[in-house]
Amino acid sequence: MSDDIAIFAAGLSRRFGTVCAVREVSLSVRRGEIFGLVGPDGAGKSTMMRMLAGVLPPDTGRIIIAGVDVVADPEAAKEKLSYMPQRFGLYEDLTVAENIFFYAEMFGVPRALRRRREGELLAAANLGAFRARLAGRLSGGMKQKLGLVCALIHTPEVLLLDEPTTGVDPVSRRDFWAILYGLRDSGVTTLLSTAYMDEAERCSRLALMGHGEIRRCDTPARLKQMMPGMMLAVSAADPRAVKAALEGAPGVLGLLLMGDRVHVRVDDAPRRLPCLQTWLAARGVSGADIAPIRPSIEDVFVALDTEPAS
Questions:
Q1: Domain count of the chain?
Q2: Which of 167, 288, 289, 302 allows an S-S link to 235, with CB 3.0 to 4.6 Å?
């Protein structure tokens, strides 16, 4: 295995009773990448994270993190990585500074290094003014940023984040991603799962998960090129009526309601665009505006999720 690979997994499977949460998954992540896992609830993302972190042993498979065999020696792997689950274990009756001190002590970070790292990370997270505030009195976004600071205090080589920005306000999400970009530039490898498609666009590469399997894995740009068909956006006063009217229309391969418009995947956009105007008018939908668009990652995921895995 190349020294350039920070995360390597081969043939990972995990069952819970009769349910196969992860099925024969293999992946590799290069050092310094921001690698994303995208998929619906129940796709296996959290189970994957827990196995990679050494928290949950796989039924089958091999995991190497920063050169350490996680399955054989999970304790040694913990020195190389940080794992931030969906509900990170902050102590709400401790202050911001006391939480950081606790995690630094747990990882054996020397005092001088802790103070320097604490200052750098709190500044990056815009939490410097809140060192003395109880963690329980922080907003949801600030708690997530504090969780990331605690996860980074011992300078891990690999960072595993399970939907770290779910429910976080836009400003905190921006701060969170600024930290991740800074980590990337310093060579830290990040693997994260996300429910936000705009965040998926920011990743170096993406793995689209469904039913415990990785269905596609590539850069966001290349995944868009894989999408079968072409995209049209239909805007109208009642987008739900548009979506219902287009069900079963000739050449329509998929429909996705996106706010005040409908994304329509068709086999041939130049050919189908005028036909769809006629189709909608015949079903009582008038004044619709139809235009070609580039597919989003959400369009790609919905489209590829219906295709056979490669």
A1: 1
A2: 289
Predicted TM-score of the model (pTM): 0.86
Q: DSSP letter at 95?
A: B
pLDDT-based confidence at residue 209 (cuts at 50, 70, 90): very high
- What's the mean pLDDT when you consider all of the chain? 91
Residues paired with 226 in a beta bridge: none
Domain assignment present for residue 262? The answer is: yes
Residue 286 placed within a domain: yes
Helices (H), 107-169: 111-124, 140-152
Write the pLDDT tens digit of every residue in 16-55: 999 999 999 999 999 999 999 998 888 999 999 999 999 9
Contact in structure between 290 and 274 (CB atoms under 8 Å) = no
Q: How far apart are CA 62 and CA 78, in angstroms?
A: 16
What residues have CB less than 8 Å from 189, skipping those under 6 apart?
6, 7, 29, 30, 31, 32, 33, 35, 157, 158, 159
Residue 234 in domain = yes
pLDDT tens digits, 293-309? 999 888 988 887 755 54
Burial of 218 (0-12, 13-18, 19+ CB in 10 A): middle
Structural domain of residue 277, as residue ranges? 228-294
Tell me the percentage of the chain whose pLDDT exceeds 70: 97
Higher pLDDT, 195 or 269: 269
Nearest to 29 by CA among 52, 6, 10: 6
Q: What is the CATH number of the domain that holds 280?
A: 3.30.70.100
Q: Which two tokens stand for residue 189?
A: 């490898």
Specify the pLDDT at position 293: 93
For residues 301 and 291, give the distance between their C-alpha atoms in angstroms, rounded to a whole number.
Answer: 21
What pLDDT shows up at residue 302? 84
- H or E element in which residue 5 lies: strand 5-16
